[in-house]
Amino acid sequence: MSLKKTSSLISAEFFGDAQAIETNLPKETALDIVARLEKSMVQRRAMPTETPRVHTRVQIPLWSEEHRPVLHDLVRSALFTCGQKDARMDLKAKPIYALEHIRITYTGEELRQRDYDVYLQILHLSRGITVDSRQEWVEFDARALIKLLRWTQNSRSLLELRETIRRLTACALEVTRARTKTSVPVVYGGPLLLKYAGAQEGSFDEVTFWKVQINTEVAAQLKPGDYTRIDWKIRSQLSPLEKWLHAFYSTNQNPYPMKVETIHKLCGSRMAEIKFFRRAIKTALTHLTDVGFLKSWQIDDTDKVKVTRSQLVTAEGMSAVDPG
Fold first, then answer.
1. Could you tell me if residue 123 is inside a domain?
2. pLDDT per residue over 88-126, tens digit each?
3. I need a surface site. Which of 34, 70, 103, 119 has the fewest CB within 10 A?
4. In terms of pLDDT, which residue wins out, 86 or 196?
5. Nearest Cα to Cα of residue 157 among 114, 125, 119, 194
6. Per the confidence metrics, is the pTM higher than 0.90?
7. What DSSP state is assigned to residue 107?
8. C-alpha to C-alpha distance for 196 and 297, rounded to whole angstroms
9. Which residue blocks in the chain are alpha helix, DSSP H?
10. What is the tally of structural domains in the chain?
């Protein structure tokens, strides 16, 4: 193969001598070649290597004072468990049990329903604002947030709030969701809160003023059809298992029947025997009926839970829950 045929595939810099012979130009010396290559390198360094970063702006939706937004991907899984008394697990790149169209991997200390309460309240404070990748702060008084959470106003609650904010910041989740088997999956993740700062008052652990930065990549998923506005007054009356069921069943007006065993996995229960969980879920479903969220429920002969909602879903569009 001649040099003329290969010169279109390989840089002409490597054929300086041969081209000089063919064109009767003076032959380059070693110093000439070095000088030429150095000049080329300087020119390349001067060229911009990255395009200017575009700040993606995210509009947090509006909702009423009586509601909080639950993202379907998160509440249709065991990300926020119904655990209460057991020691929290420390998870590392752990696959989280979820409905079949959702894949979640999580690293960090186990998250529970009280953690989700705090996260929902922080989202509530950011409703209606526009944030971008420069990350604006959400500021709040610790005691005011504790009042919204309906926790006891004491030093222990201040400490729990501090631990929860730390937990929501020190975690990392990756969510992959596909609406259908043929649709292109959506992937997002990171910590739920990016960072925080606080002002202390009294003892070392009593932080009474906070400012936090939410992860807008997660908040950006609050789109019509992908989140539901739940009744906060009802949620504040519920136990951890009842909170999980309330959020889960809120995401669909006509839920499919689902096996007790599937719900046991989806809510992250650590009850060793399914018979004890079956008893617990019966109590929880009865209470959800008493507070007016459910119209009726039953567990049929195939051990599937069938519920009938008593109120309309408060959402910007709906998507179906796959049967378990």
1. yes
2. 999 999 999 999 999 999 999 999 999 999 999 999 999
3. 34
4. 196
5. 114
6. no
7. E
8. 42
9. 3-6, 16-22, 30-46, 72-75, 113-125, 142-149, 155-169, 216-219, 232-235, 240-250, 260-266, 274-290
10. 2
